[in-house]
Amino acid sequence: MEDLHIENLTKIYDPHSNPVIGVEDLNIELDEGNFLVLVGPSGCGKSTTLRTIAGLESATSGNIRINGEVVNDQKPKERDIAMVFQNYALYPHMTARQNMGFGLKMISDLSKEEIADRVEEVAGMMGIKDLLDDKPSALSGGQQQRVALGRAIVREPQVFLLDEPLSNLDAKLRAHMRTEIKELQQNLDITTVYVTHDQTEAMTMGDKIAVLNEGKLQQLGSPLECYHQPTNRFVAGFIGEPSMNFFEAELKDDRLVNESLDYPLSDARLDAVEGIDDVVLGIRPEDAEIVATVGDHTVNGTVNVVEPLGSVNYIHTDIAGRERTIEVDGNQYADEGQQIAIRFPEDQIHLFDQESGDAVYNPEVNDETVARTSFEGGASGMTSD
Ligand code: ADP
């Protein structure tokens, strides 16, 4: 049985005076132990979804089921969930120990000793035993976040809800905490919904990710499904860093044509765009390559800026007046102002219907790669040759 089921969830704020859609007709099913990341730009409905699961907002329509039971009418504290907030929300006058035990004292009938034991055990697991007698003001951001996570873990809830829990940490600590939270979640095997606007967190932490935009689910799939087989242009542009480059073009006979492109299509790609006049060609920076000679699948560009990252270089290139990004090996360099030919290998391009934004062709991927983190009821299966 599913552990958490978001069923046709719609939330409209101020429905009578000034209706604003928070989230619209959202459907997501999670099995026990799943780690779902809700990701999307600011205002796409992530917090609304999380807060509705928690019971902090009421659903306008649709259901939230936890362990099969509709919990719409239950108060937050009656739902078997624990939430971790971005700002930690620790009580400043309480020690870490008191903060961690407080929720348990309120919601359970465990004895003082049992609570104390559980807090010690979780603090040990989180490496914060030495901090238990400190107040939040004496703790660093990372330590406060560990206490906040520990407070959620001691409750042993059915579902964890985490709302941008790493946003206040510096980049290095954030990267460290990503793996720490992922490991903890795997060990505890508690169903988790994690909200972030950061696609890197989504890619690295989720077994499933739900990409939202303007209150609507764009794709539900494993991170690699969303990366390799985006269902539409929005997902293709949102997942992957640096973002996919898009070229709007007209289909003329078997070629995609615009001011910078004259790109012949063959086989499955040509079949996929049949009947579509306005097409968008998508190419990821890491799939484009600088070549010595101009050919059928190349475009010309002028290097604007080179960003060296050590293992790779990002070559920001002007192609017909718009800046595009190409990722090359760290030892391949280009000079500012240099004219270069860039090849978009035909077996790496993505094609979209310009009008609807839907993906009509994604490159073939090794099924095992995607299946490794795949799940039932995932993204709509895109066909490729
Ligand atoms: P996210 O968490 O992805 O940034 P939210 O769920 O906070 O997005 O917001 C989704 C939409 O709902 C936005 O348009 C936002 O302005 C609106 N919204 C959120 N909370 C309220 C509220 N309390 N009253 C009115 N509109 C709201």
Automatic annotation (TrEMBL):
One of the Pfam families matching this protein, by short name: ABC_tran
Signal sequence segment: none
UniProt-listed SMART domains: AAA
EC identifiers of the protein: 7.5.2.13
Domain ABC transporter: residue ranges: 4-239
Tree of life domain: Archaea
InterPro entries: AAA+_ATPase (IPR003593), ABC_transporter-like_ATP-bd (IPR003439), ABC_transporter-like_CS (IPR017871), ABC_transpr_MalK-like (IPR015855), ABC_transpr_MalK/UgpC-like (IPR047641), Mo/tungstate-bd_C_term_dom (IPR008995), NA-bd_OB-fold (IPR012340), P-loop_NTPase (IPR027417)
Catalytic activity: L-arabinose(out) + ATP + H2O = L-arabinose(in) + ADP + phosphate + H(+); D-xylose(out) + ATP + H2O = D-xylose(in) + ADP + phosphate + H(+)
Compartments in which it is found: Cell membrane
Cell membrane recorded as keyword: yes
Record key words, sorted: ATP-binding, Cell membrane, Membrane, Nucleotide-binding, Translocase, Transport
Topological relation to the membrane, as annotated: Peripheral membrane protein
Gene Ontology CC: plasma membrane; transmembrane transporter complex
Alphabetized GO MF terms: ATP binding; transmembrane transporter activity
Subunit structure: The complex is composed of two ATP-binding proteins (XacJ and XacK), two transmembrane proteins (XacH and XacI) and a solute-binding protein (XacG).
Stated family: Belongs to the ABC transporter superfamily. Carbohydrate uptake transporter-1 (CUT1) (TC 3.A.1.1) family.
Task performed by this protein: Part of the ABC transporter complex XacGHIJK involved in the uptake of xylose and arabinose. Responsible for energy coupling to the transport system.
Protein name: ABC-type D-xylose/L-arabinose transporter
The organism of origin for this protein: Saliphagus infecundisoli
Lineage: Archaea, Methanobacteriati, Methanobacteriota, Stenosarchaea group, Halobacteria
